[in-house]
Amino acid sequence: MQERYTPDVQRVRVDYERYCQISVRCAELFGEKSLLFFTPATFLLFKRDSHGRISILLLFHYIMRKVSMQQTRIYLSYHDSSGRGHLTERDLEAYVDQVRVGVVANSGASPANEAPRHAHWGWGVS
Hints:
A two-stranded antiparallel ribbon has the order 1-2. The protein has helices at about 15-30, 40-45, 55-75, 90-105; strands at about 15, 55. By secondary structure, the protein is mostly helical.
């Protein structure tokens, strides 16, 4: 059986030319919006080695954090009852309850083991 080479992802680094090639490939696979993550400014955020290369693992983690933040903003916007770009206490409670239910569902815990749902969390303002 032929053994497949797997690079040590901790050590994989890319120069700007390869970074641009990756951005083009991501646009082909995931659409043009993925190009927002591959700007020259993004490349310059990372520490470069003596050959001008950046860590592909750090780039991956950066992109995943950005995507996660965007998703969270979208999820939070669903709970903006006034539509003015901010959440009331009740809006935030609804969001937290939705997240809590999702975490419990994904954890495999039975409903009997989950924390009680509160109509009001008591964070100061009624």
